[in-house]
Amino acid sequence: MKKAILILALAASVLSITACGGNTQKETTETAKPKGKYYCTMNPDITSDKPGTCSKCGMDLVERDTTKK
To answer: pTM to 2 decimals?
Structure first.
């Protein structure tokens, strides 16, 4: 009898922990904002608030598409 209660308690605690996990990754991805309005197509980590050229490859920065799908 004590073994059954222990197993049920363990199962309940595991279920409560996994249920609280939620989809936090999806929420942070959707709410994350781009760093700058312009970016390099070859090096997306290079961004700027104004048009210019990429400091790594010299390509022109293009305007980021801000329309939501």
So the answer is: 0.47
